[in-house]
Amino acid sequence: MCKAVRGALCRGPLGQPGAVRLWENRVGLGWTGQFHVVTRHNLQQLRGALRSEDMIIRGPRALPAGFEPGSGDLLGFRCVRIEPYHVGLTVAVFVSLEGKRPSGGRLEPRQRQWRENVAAAGGIAGVFRCEEEAREILNSWPFA
């Protein structure tokens, strides 16, 4: 769902009022280190504990991915022209959109806190269940 909504909402030349750029934010944890692929040639040396095409990571190190646990599924900005009484500059406003299933999807406490922090800092933050809800959130910022 996020990829379709992101494609539908990202538009306009960068730096122009109304331009939106969003990226999928996949939060998770992976591992890195020196890896060895198990082949049928070295499988017997490993005493049958592994299968062919398994991988061994020696000296593993955690590799966090994504922005931060609880952050939105789509992150980015929307360009908004500040009117003459704001010197006429174009600014990028941080956007955090959390995608949920059309029914039953609920915010976790960390997600709720993230959304509140982004909004309190002047960014655009919200939860969407369809493209129209995402558009409404983007257009809700005071100067949009």
In short:
The protein is built from three helices and six strands. By secondary structure, it is α+β, with helices and mostly antiparallel strands. The strands form two sheets. The protein has a four-stranded mixed beta sheet.
Overview of this protein structure:
The protein is an alpha+beta fold and 144 residues long. Helices cover 19% and strands 34% of the residues. It is built from 3 helices and 6 strands.
Report the portion of residues in β strands. Answer: 25-35%
**CATH fold descriptor of the largest domain:** Trna Endonuclease, Chain: A, domain 1
Strand order of the largest sheet: 1-4-5-6
Gross CATH architecture of the largest domain: 3-Layer(aba) Sandwich
- Write down the secondary-structure element order: HEEEEEHEH
Number of strands: 6
Helix-strand category? alpha+beta
Q: What's the average pLDDT?
A: 82
How many domains would you count in the coordinates?
2
Q: Radius of gyration, Cα only, in angstroms?
A: 21 Å
Uncertain spans, ≥5 residues at pLDDT below 50? none
Helix run count = 3
CATH class of the largest domain: Alpha Beta
- Broad shape: elongated
